[in-house]
Design goal:
Elements: H1 4-7, E1 13-23, E2 28-34, E3 44-45, E4 47-50, H2 57-69, E5 75-82, E6 92-101, E7 117-120, H3 131-146, E8 160-161, H4 162-173, H5 179-188, E9 192-199, E10 207-212, H6 214-222
Parallel strand pairs: 1-6
Antiparallel strand pairs: 1-2, 1-4, 2-3, 2-7, 5-6, 8-10, 9-10
Length: about 230
């Protein structure tokens, strides 16, 4: 059955690009690789691919992320659609997603077939196409949401210390926080479970480990409350 209304219009490629954030206990990093195909072969790039005919965008983002990095079951959120006419050598629309990765869970991702490399945000090289614009927008979104939603915990292992949690939020916002005020604020929400375990990697005395209480957070949401840093 012919559809003249559709057939008279031009067709375009649809790509999905993923901005992948990770935290290494000190800094926020982006996972990049060097392109091995033209155009821009050899340039630093985000991980991406094309939408297949019979899949939706969210499924495509998950498939591309898993195929290229091995990541699955991670935080993945649609960011923005980039469609400038001259953004690529062909007419390509790109739907950007950002992912939050616990780098301890995926400690072996560097290297591999795609020469993946974690690069600190402050050392970000020139990127191909409009990927630098995507990264900057994703960082703004991360900072905005981290203040009102507990998405920062996606970057941490299941068990963590308060110093490590503070270090994470300082890395996200690029500024230091007063230790006493940060702890008072984060503990007052009642969203952390203190464990009978300590991390003694930094000192003999060690620091108590905590776990984020997702059930408690859901209860607060049902009461019209939530996370506020």
């Amino acid at each position: 059955m012919s559809m003249p209304f559709y057939s008279k219009h031009s067709k375009h490629y649809v790509a999905v690009d993923c901005i992948i954030f990770g935290f290494d206990q000190e800094k926020i990093n982006i996972l990049l690789h060097k392109r091995k195909f033209e155009p821009y072969s050899g340039g630093w790039s985000l991980f991406g691919g094309f939408l297949e005919e019979n899949e939706n965008l969210n499924n495509a983002a998950g498939r591309i992320l898993h195929t290229l990095t091995g990541f699955s079951g991670v935080y993945l959120e649609q960011l923005f659609t980039y469609g400038d006419v001259e953004r690529d050598k062909e007419r390509v629309l790109s739907v950007a997603y950002f992912a939050l990765i616990n780098t301890e869970r995926y400690s072996s991702v560097e290297g591999g077939d795609f020469d993946a490399v974690w690069i600190p945000l402050e050392e970000l090289p020139d990127l191909v196409l409009d990927h630098k614009i995507m990264v900057n927008k994703a960082l703004r979104r991360l900072r905005r949401k981290a203040a009102s939603e507990p998405i920062g915990f996606e970057l941490l292992p299941e068990k963590f210390t308060l110093p490590r949690l503070q270090k994470l939020y300082e890395a996200i916002y690029g500024e230091g926080f007063d230790k006493r005020n940060f702890r008072k604020k984060i503990l007052s929400m009642g969203l952390l479970k203190k464990l009978d375990e300590k991390d003694k990697s930094g000192s003999k005395k060690g620091a108590f480990l905590f776990r984020f209480d997702k059930k408690k957070y859901d209860e607060l949401l049902s009461e019209g409350l939530g996370f506020e840093l």
